[in-house]
Amino acid sequence: GQNIDQPTEMTATEGAIVQINCTYQTSGFNGLFWYQQHAGEAPTFLSYNVLDGLEEKGRFSSFLSRSKGYSYLLLKELQMKDSASYLCAVMDSNYQLIWGAGTKLIIKP
Amino acid sequence: GAVVSQHPSRVICKSGTSVKIECRSLDFQATTMFWYRQFPKQSLMLMATSNEGSKATYEQGVEKDKFLINHASLTLSTLTVTSAHPEDSSFYICSALSGLNSYEQYFGPGTRLTVT
Questions:
Q1: Rounded-to-integer distance, Cα B15 and Cα B109, Å
Q2: DSSP state, A81?
Q3: Which residue of B has its CA nearest to A100?
Q4: pLDDT of residue B31
Q5: B69: how many CB neighbours lie within 10 A of its CB?
Q6: What was the pLDDT predicted at A97?
Q7: B55 vs B14, more confident
Q8: DSSP letters along chain B, please?
Q9: Does the beta carbon of B25 lie under 8 angstroms from any beta carbon of chain A?
Q10: Smallest CA–CA separation between A68 and chain B, in Å?
Q11: CA distance A101 to A109
């Protein structure tokens, strides 16, 4: 079966760095996405990785290792507004998105 | 960036009635739109894939006669929840694929449906 695993909840301090991991087992691979979702709102796109390596975009970076079925989202200089759920999703061979359950990130002052 | 709107944002209806939710791509043509459902503290669940001008493709376990999807134009898809029941109460989100970067989905703001 297809499976996306990510931690349920993480806590970090304002100004610090946090890494949210995602492992996946899917039927084929056509890219991995990270989305941010605030409570009661729709997800917003953060990043897309299809090749191995690190993609940096401002305070957010996303890493992919296809051989390990592994990705992480790195958030630097954490701000209170970064408190949200972070969803990992993989596009399978049928170009369908398989979603993880999301990681709730709590930022403390 | 591409913008997707949904209407209404919140709706409360009585059990047994039907509710229509609209999803519009405002500044791009979306040949494909997706409808998701999200329960509290759970991941998004794909309900159906909607292609303009053709019948929607429903995911296993989703009742096509209960969740009617129409994609009549390149900028509008509608989801109608028929004979709603309290267990249909949920957050419904649509997304659309932009032709410029077809792997990136743009999400609507979601519709909170409460069935009393």
A1: 24
A2: G
A3: B43
A4: 80
A5: 23
A6: 78
A7: B14
A8: ---EEEE-SEEEE-TT--EEEEEEESSS--SEEEEEEE-TTS-EEEEEEEETTSPPEEPTT--TTTEEEEEEETTEEEEEE-S--GGG-EEEEEEEE-GGGTT-EEE---EEEEE-
A9: no
A10: 22
A11: 26
| pLDDT at residue B40 tops 80 | no
Tens of pLDDT along chain A (109 residues) come to: 788 999 999 999 999 999 999 999 998 998 999 999 888 777 888 998 999 999 999 999 999 999 999 999 999 999 999 999 999 999 888 777 788 989 999 999 9
CA distance A18 to chain B (A): 21
* Distance (Å, whole) CA A26 – CA A3: 6
Per-residue b or e along B98-112, where b marks 16 or more CB atoms closer than 10 Å to that residue's CB: beeeeebbbbbebbe
**What token pair was written down for B62?**
């989703």
Residues of A with CB under 8 A from a CB of B: 30-31, 40-45, 48, 87, 91, 96-97, 99-102
Tokens of A12: 């970090």
- Assigned token pair, B26: 């405002």
